[in-house]
C-alpha cells in the first residue's frame, strides 16, 4: 500500500490486487461483540518513516491519525521476580529505570551497550537499511573501512556482543528478546540487530489511537486520493514474464492484467517458488523466521496497573529457543501481552481486550508442527493461560471468550511461508544484510514487504517501499 501511494503520487497509474477481503496484510484487525484487536504489530517505531510517506503523498500523518508516544513502553517481569517499567522519552530515562528496578550499575551497563548500538546504527543505516540491496557487494562496501567493520562486528552474534557489555543476567535476557523481533535466535542473529533496542529506546515507541490497523486504512485512503484502484479478494496466481521481463499478473479467475512494472508484497519464498516457478530464479534456501501463537482475550473487569505492553519471561530462555529451533511448540514460553488502554477497543469501561502472543515454530506438518491439529491448539492455549497465571496474570475466571490464531492461520490469511512472520530469519553473520533484494532478477519486477530487504516490522517494510519507489522513479 505504501509503495502504491508513493508511486501514484509520482504520476504512475497503479492497481493493487489483495488476496484477502481486507487490506493490511499482517497488520490485521479482529472485532467481535464490541471487543477489537490489532492482530499484528502493536507499536510503531521509527515513526519518521511513516511521516515521510504521508508528507511525500500529501498532508502530514497527524492530519489523519492520532499518533501518541507510549510511556512506559513495556513492563517486564523476570523469572527471579524482579520487574521493571522501561519508559519512553530517551536512553537516560531507561538507564535510571533499570538502576531503580534491577540495582545500581545496570543502567550504566545498558547505556554502554546502547552507545555501541548507536555507532552500529550510524554505520549501517544508510547502506543497509535505506539503500537497495546489492548482494555481497553491499558487505564489500563496508569492508573498505576497517573501523566500520569493527563497529558492526559482522563476525559476532547479538548475544555475543551483549555479553561484552552486560553482566547482569536480566539485561542479557532483555537483549535476547530483541532477536525475536526478527524471528531469530540471539546466539545466531548478527550483532547488527543491536540497533533494534536502540531505535525503540532512542526514538520512542508509538501507538495509533483506535488501533494500528488505522495506519493501514490511512495509507489506503492516501493511495486512493492519488487514483490507486484497490481490489480486495483478488489473489494473483502468476507473474507474467514470458519475454524476459515482468509484463503483468494473472489473477485467480484467469484474467491477465498487463503492466509496465510489477511490485510484489508476496512472501519472497512464495513469489519465487510459485508465482515465478523457473528454478534459476529461486533464491538460495534460507531458514524461515519463527511465527507466533496468538490468543485474543475478551475479559471482564479491569487490571490494576496494567501497562500497554507486558512481557513475562520464563525460567530458561534458552529452552524456548531450543524448542523453536527443533520446530516444536514452546513448553515454557515467554508471554507477550498487548492491552492498550483505548476505549475504541472495548465495549465498556469494565472490560479489556488483550492480544497475547508466544513465539511458535512455523506450520510444517511434514517436518515440524502441524498447527491444524485441534488437540494441539487447545492444549497450547491452555498452556499459555496457565503460564500467565503462574507468573501473576491469571485471567481465566474473567474470560468472556477467546479466539486463537495459529501459524497455519497466518499462512492462510497472508500467504507467508508456514506463517513465518518475518520471511527468512536473521540467523547467521550475513543474513540480516542478504535478504531477497528489492530489485528481482526479472526486469520490471520489484519486491517489498517483510520478507524482502531490509526486513520485517513496520519501519523496515516502510523503508522497502521507499527504496522501491526510488528504484522505479517518476512516471
Automatic annotation (TrEMBL):
Signal sequence annotation: none
Domain Amine oxidase: 2-455
Keyword Membrane: no
UniProt KW Oxidoreductase keyword: yes
GO molecular function list: oxidoreductase activity
SUPFAM superfamilies for the chain: FAD/NAD(P)-binding domain (SSF51905)
Pfam families from the UniProt entry: Amino_oxidase
Taxonomic superkingdom: Bacteria
Record keywords, A-Z: Carotenoid biosynthesis, Oxidoreductase
Biological process annotations from GO: carotenoid biosynthetic process
Pathway: Carotenoid biosynthesis
Matching InterPro entries: Amino_oxidase, Carotenoid/retinoid_OxRdtase, FAD/NAD-bd_sf
Gene3D superfamilies the UniProt entry points to: FAD/NAD(P)-binding domain
Family statement: Belongs to the carotenoid/retinoid oxidoreductase family.
NCBIfam families documented for this protein: crtI_fam (TIGR02734)
Record-given protein name: Zeta-phytoene desaturase
